[in-house]
Structure formats: structure tokens, C-alpha cells
Specification:
The structure is a homodimer of 333-residue chains. Chain A is built from 12 helices and 13 strands.
């Protein structure tokens, strides 16, 4: 199957013009009618770098590609709008798999109210999915950036942390996985944290509406992303690691893997795709109520302080290093 | 150098907020204030598929990646706005080369009035540049799509054709190149058609303003792109190949390569990145004047007819097949 034929097959699966999209895939460009302001983010996932084809279904690969891009929109508090997907297809990926990948993208897009507005297909030595997402707001200042944190803000985190890192440890060390006393449900839930992260779009919008003044998604690990946020805002951040909401099973995996403190998996393991938000003290109650209404757990894990740097204290006076993952240096993100 | 460091170096070279961009690279997403309507296009170029690293400078690779995306905006008649670049960097590409690639992108962006608003860097087995471009207009209907051609329209083409295909032949057959009586200036000009295509943004805007009712950029060859346009519009297209404006040197290269008709290089060789526009007969004079004012050659090469399909007649009653390049099937585009 050639490029045009595969593109045509992919297009059959794309919705017609919908939402803000006036003309979808098939012309030189897609035509949209944006809101007053747009937030745009681009992300790529590459086989062997960000995921391993043999460990995921094609559908899950597609979902994940879109999810990590949408997580950036969630961190802006943006209303999700359009997505554009470029698929780099190696010769050993068959047509059925390529279409399943797009089905994965399209399913998550539909779940999140995102219109797949365009894309491209090309040959590539490694399966690569590059996703551009566009979110909307009435005014540019409605988006929540990284640089607005102020001393005194409460530091809130959505959902649970450490699950993706724990799942990665289980995946990489089958013997460790066999020896652990974890229920099948817990194992499946951990695997889903790694393989099928859910972008926190509703939570991000609720936090923005509740007055969050800075926000970032946790893709590099809580410590690293807190550092990015602190640097952008010119503030310091204190985190109480004993308060971190850990996914079920993280304690067991951390202990069996020789970590002194299970919070290390949340602090330095990435890919949880939760949100870290700074909220003025007066708005914390409103933010909590909004998140509860959205069905998302929210936990106060620290405070923004004057100064610089990230300090993470744990039980017994221990300090955890604010790690953070560097994908080019370490080979995965 | 790790991902964050390379990203930081790249960001130093990006302009601060400019144009419609309120917040550029560095946050979870870029923030822009669009016009009433946007045109968005995504394209990727992959080493070994769309270009060969060893045959181009890093700077030229960067320019080309942006140029092919901007060509799609030109074909919409869009005012160019923002670009987002994802660079997939193999381990054997050094930091200096990566920065030169971005310099190439940034230089062309500056020349075209485009703001580099964001991007990402990742490891990849092959050098890959994926570029998303966004163009603007007041209203969705201001953009020129592929589907508006009507019988009786004149078929116009900007600039000159066949140069990229001729340059590719010279590149692939050094013996052919040596034996040809071409001046150095002609050889350089042909090579530039292949290696440094110029997106026809001003010409596209002028054609849109002059009343073009359908437009496409010529990336797959005149024949193939005419077919795309004819299918989208539900019309037929007749092209007079004897009128095609061929780049200097194309005749010589075609003859030495055994082509019966030099127009074949224009018809089936891709990558000229000129525009093919359908203009109502009453507007042809205005379009010609507008293009002349923009300093761009424009040639009437055919007519839109009722029916379907593309017919290309050449001298002596010969017919040329409307080829068109299929990148996945043939390994390059």
C-alpha cells in the first residue's frame, strides 16, 4: 500500500468537519475557526526511545501519542480543540497495524472531545508519531503558564504518582514482578499508568477556573517538573514527600527494587502525566471542590516559597534529590 | 549534551514573543492570538526518505523542512504565522550540526515572516524534522482549497518546473552531469531548486486575492497534483505541455537522460514547490498583474473542463501520462 492509499484509508477514519474545524484532512491544510487565543503543543514518540513496539498494542501506541500531547494542553487549562498526527511508518509495520494505531488516536480524541483535523504519513526507520495539538481559550491570559507561581501558593497534585515508574520496573525485571504479592487488578492498573496515561484535561480546566496561577504536567518526574516550574516562576518549592499520593502497588515495587523511600518513584520516575498546580491559599478550597466535582483526586503536597530550588523532605528528616529525566542523555523519557 | 540542554540552546535562538505569538517556546504550549480563521499543515522530512544528510548542509536541511510545510500555506493563500519544529536527532549528529539545522529553519522563518513558536527535540534513529505551520486569514472562505475549480477556469503555474527533477538526475548520475554542457550558474540554480525550494507565499496570497478558486502546491509533480486538484473539484484538466515553463538546463538534462520530451521532468518529477492555480477567465489578467508586481513568473498552461481526469498533450500530438509520486511506494517524495 502506497502513501496516497494509506492516507486515503486513514482519512476514511477521520471525522468530517466538526467543532472548530471547517475543513479537515485532504487539502493542503486544515481550516479552523479558533477561539480568541490558542495554545499549541507538539510532541513526538519514537519506538525504542519513548516506547517499545513489542510491548504495546498498536492501539495503545496511538492513544499514548495523543495523550502525552494533550497532557500539555491540560497543563495550560486549555479547552482541547484539534490534533494533527504525522505517522512515520517502518516497512515492517503492516497496514492493519497502521490503521489500528490511528484507531487508537481517534478513540482517545473522541473521548476527549478533540477533532483529528489532519496529518501525514511517511516512511521512517522507526515507528514515530508526532502529534500537534491545539487548545482554545477566550483570551491569552486565560491559559495557565509555568511562570506565575508566587510565594505562599499551595502546591497541588492531581491523581496518583509513581505508578508509571513502578510499571516500568515490573516490565524491565520479570523476576521482580513474579516474586511480588500484588493482585492482578493492581498489576493491570499499574501497567495502564505506563501504557495508557489519561490526559487530565478536565482537571486542568477546573484548576485554571479555580485560580491556579502556575501549572505543569508531570512528564519528567515530580522533582524535575517542580524544578522547571520553580525556575520559570523565579520561586522555590518545598515538597513534603510523605504526603505524595502514591498509586497502589508503588510501595511494594519500590521496596522490592531496593528503594529506601517509595516516594522516589514519584519524584524521579516520569510519565505519570498528572498535573502539578500552584494555587493561592485563598483558592485552595475552591480548587478542591472543583476537582472533586470532576471526579479527580487532588492532594496538597507542598508550598511555594521565596527563593529558588526544590526541596523534597521525607520521613525521618530525609531529603530526596529532585531528579528529573533527561531523555537525550538517558535514552528514554 | 542532553535533551534539556539542547532544547535550551535551541530556545536561545528562537525569537521572543512576536507577531501573533504571546508566549513562545519553553512552557507546556505556545500561546497565540490567531486571526479569524487558521490554516494548519504538518509535514515531516526523514533522512534517507526525503533527503540525504550527506548531500546537504545542516542549514539547507533545516530550510527545506520549513519550506515544504510553508508551501502548503502558500497553496491556501494564507498569511504565514507560526511554525513548530520537532527535531528527531540521531546519536551521530553533533550539537553543532543540530544548531545549524535550527539556524536554517530560523533564517527561512525570518525571511518569510514566520514566528518559530515552539518545538521539541528527541532521539531518533534517523534525522527527522516534523514541521507544523499555521497561517491566518480573516474568514475561513478566504483560504483557497483544492475543490473550487470550475470548467472554463484558466490553469496557471508559478515560476518554473522540472528543475528539481533535473537536479536529482544530475545528483544520482555523476557521469551524466560531467558530460553535459551546462554553465556553473545553471548547475547551481538547478541544485538550488532541489535543495533550497522557496515557498511561494507572496504568489499564493496574490493569487487568492486575485480570485483563484482552487490551488495546490506542486510537490508530487504537475501531473499528480493536477490529478489531486481535478478529483477534489470534480472536474477535468487539460494541460498543454508545450507551454510549461521549464527551468534552464532541464531540456539538456532530459535529453541526455533519454527522455523523449523534457516536459516529462515537469509532469512526473516532483518537488518543484510551485503553485498550480485555477483562475476564472475574467480574473486572469488581474492575477497576472498581481504576480508580476510580486516579481513571480506566471504561465497559463491549460484549462479546466467539465468531466474528469487530466490530459497532457505535447508537441506532435503526443500525450504525457499524468504520473505523480507516491512516497511510500517509491521510497522518496
Amino acid at each position: 500500500m502506497g502513501e496516497f492509499e494509506l492516507l486515503a484509508r486513514l482519512r476514511e477514519r477521520l471525522p468530517a468537519a466538526a467543532g472548530r474545524v471547517r475543513l479537515g484532512s485532504g487539502d493542503d491544510a486544515a481550516i479552523t475557526v479558533p477561539g480568541g487565543a490558542t495554545a499549541t503543543s507538539v510532541d513526538a514518540i519514537v519506538d525504542g526511545v519513548h516506547f517499545h513496539r513489542e510491548l504495546m498494542t498498536p492501539r495503545a501506541i496511538g492513544r499514548r501519542a495523543l495523550a502525552v500531547s494533550l497532557s500539555d494542553l491540560a497543563a495550560m487549562g486549555a479547552a482541547p480543540g484539534e490534533a494533527y498526527v504525522v505517522a512515520g511508518i517502518p516497512t515492517d509495520l503492516d497496514e492493519g497495524e497502521a490503521l489500528e494505531i490511528l484507531d487508537g488516536v481517534a478513540t482517545l480524541a473522541s473521548e476527549c472531545g478533540v477533532t483529528l483535523a489532519g496529518g501525514d504519513v511517511t516512511r521512517s526507520p522507526a515507528l514515530t508519531l508526532t502529534v500537534t495539538v491545539v487548545g482554545h481559550a477566550e483570551r491569552p491570559e486565560d491559559f495557565v503558564t509555568r511562570d506565575g507561581a508566587r510565594p505562599g501558593d499551595a502546591l497541588l497534585v492531581t491523581g496518583e504518582l509513581g505508578g508509571a515508574a513502578a510499571a516500568l520496573l515490573l516490565q524491565e525485571r520479570p523476576q521482580l514482578a513474579e516474586g511480588l504479592d500484588l493482585s492482578d487488578a493492581t498489576r493491570r492498573a499499574l501497567a495502564a499508568r505506563l501504557l495508557d496515561p489519561a490526559p487530565r484535561l478536565e482537571a486542568g480546566a477546573a484548576l485554571a477556573a479555580a485560580g491556579a496561577d502556575a501549572m505543569i504536567d508531570i512528564s519528567d518526574g515530580l522533582g524535575g517538573d517542580a524544578r522547571h516550574l520553580a525556575e520559570a516562576s523565579g520561586v522555590g518549592i518545598h515538597i513534603d514527600a510523605t504526603r505524595l499520593p502514591l498509586s497502589e502497588g508503588v510501595r511494594e515495587v519500590a521496596a522490592a527494587s531496593g528503594f529506601e523511600d517509595p516516594a522516589e518513584l514519584a519524584v524521579s520516575g516520569g510519565e505519570d502525566y498528572e498535573l502539578l498546580a500552584c494555587v493561592p491559599a485563598a483558592s485552595v478550597a475552591a480548587a478542591g471542590a472543583a476537582l472533586a466535582a470532576a471526579g479527580t483526586r487532588i492532594t496538597r503536597v507542598g508550598v511555594v516559597v521565596a527563593g529558588a530550588g526544590v526541596e523534597i523532605s521525607s520521613s525521618g528528616g530525609r531529603r530526596l534529590p529532585p531528579g528529573g529525566y533527561d531523555q537525550l542523555a538517558h535514552g528514554r523519557s
